[in-house]
Amino acid sequence: MSEKTRKKGGVLDFIERVGNKLPHPYILFLWLCLILAVISCILSLKGTSVINPTTGDTVVVQNLLSQNGIKWLLTNLLSNFQTFTPLGLVLAMQMAIGFSERVGLLNTAMRKAILGVPMWALTATVLFLGINGSIASEASIIVVPSLAAAAFAAVGMHPIAGLLAGYAATNAGFTASLIPAGTDVLLSGVTDSTAKLMDSNFVVNPTCNWYFMIVSTFMLTVVGVWTNKVFIVPRLGEYKGPAAEKESDISAAEGKGLKAAGIFTLAYIALFAALTIPKNGMMRGDDGTVLNGTLIKGLVPILIIFFILVGVVYGVVAGTLKKADDVPTYMAESLTSLTGYIVLVFVIAQFIDMFAYTNLGMIIAVNSAELLQAAGFTGLPMIIFFILLCCVVNLFMTSGSAKWYIFAPILVPMMMTLGYSPAFAQVIYRIGDSCTNAITPIYPYIPIALGMAKKYDKDFGMGSLIALMLPYALTFLASWILLMIAWVVFNLPLGPGATVFM
């Protein structure tokens, strides 16, 4: 169905209209701060309080509009921003990964992986690479679908089928990955801050969902291949459109750079293996275990160093890195995409710390948990409900981090009260936040995907894209929920030192 003739007034159009009317996240959080201040004033005057189930202490609402509240806000305004846990980690990770992307390593690796595989493995490769594309952040959403379309056309398959597989993988499977990425760092920082509302000694690491996401990566790849074969290819039929532009293979210089980067990667892994495997290895903890050792606790810095060094190796060999001064220059350039995030963080940091100061997070979490327990709405039905809630909210608000900043202060303490770990609360959110990305009408990358598709079918419109993305969204969601249920039933570890239950 073309963009011009698609039906108006349906659910999707309603979602699009409402989503487009939402204010910028910065303005949204300013309003939330104001609303929070008013609510804290009202509840404080009413003497609202709860008993902290963890410590047994009485927790009362602190009034932000009182003399003490205003004094606290003014004296902590800058420190709230400076000490915001995710900020430094996100900036450091972006510098490293952005540098690797800037010198051409990530783009070359994706082109080589997609354009160099046999026909029988092409769909699985596109999906697997796209799902892991969160390592390169949003860059993968542009690169993978385009390359996939060209690769599919080159072997006689429908190019739009390849484009859709790449788009679904990079969006609906966004937070899954074999290695912790910037998303893990960002989300875990927020989770850690909100978990401390209940227990000031609780620590949430960026690797807290690692095991679950590794399994998710392979599961979503298999489900995606099945979805493509059963739903997408039959619907598209035989391709009779204009010939696809042939995507050029990597150059000789890029090939040499990629080979050198591969050798360095193996050497890097071997080095840390040698420091970890022996019983007295320096990467182990004082108790001799890997779990409590430097390898796990310092995994994010290890990855940051890796992306910088492997980028340097590739850049020198491929010729994209001309001089040493290019390294800090490219790092600085990689941070330009985060200027909006830094501005947003200033007001988000205030909201999170204001929430903590008022004790409203604790109040809402404890009362909500008691209400759910009294109604008997706990366990798996409650968990699935929150996943579906995140899916629905995602249709109207596309910023994953912004949603977690709103959800986390309530969901994390509430789940802890019900006996579930902060790491598991984060998993619930990540599932719901990912699956519906591909069918969200207001998603900023939809125009790009439509532009790619129109090269092969000029009548391909918004309705076409969402209709063909819906099978991916639903199969990913159903399989992810089943995987989550299995994790709960068997009480499997979510990541190093992270469990489902408290």
Short description:
This protein is mainly alpha-helical. α3 packs antiparallel against α15 and α7 packs antiparallel against α8. Helix content is 68%, strand content 1%.
What is the strand and helix layout of this fold?
Elements: H1 11-21, H2 25-45, E1 49-51, E2 58-60, H3 67-82, H4 85-102, H5 105-115, H6 119-131, H7 139-154, H8 159-171, H9 182-195, H10 210-236, H11 252-276, H12 294-297, H13 299-318, H14 326-334, H15 339-358, H16 360-375, H17 379-396, H18 400-417, H19 422-435, H20 446-454, H21 462-489
Distance between the termini: 50 Å
Biggest sheet architecture: 2 strands, antiparallel
Give the SSE string. Answer: HHEEHHHHHHHHHHHHHHHHHHH
Structural class determined from secondary elements: mainly alpha
Count of DSSP helices? 21
Helix content: 55-70%
Low-pLDDT sequence parts: 1-9
Q: How many domains would you count in the coordinates?
A: 1
- Name the strands of the widest sheet in spatial order: 1-2
Radius of gyration: 24 Å
The percentage of residues in β strands lies in under 5%
General form: globular
Instruction: Calculate the mean pLDDT score and round it.
Output: 83
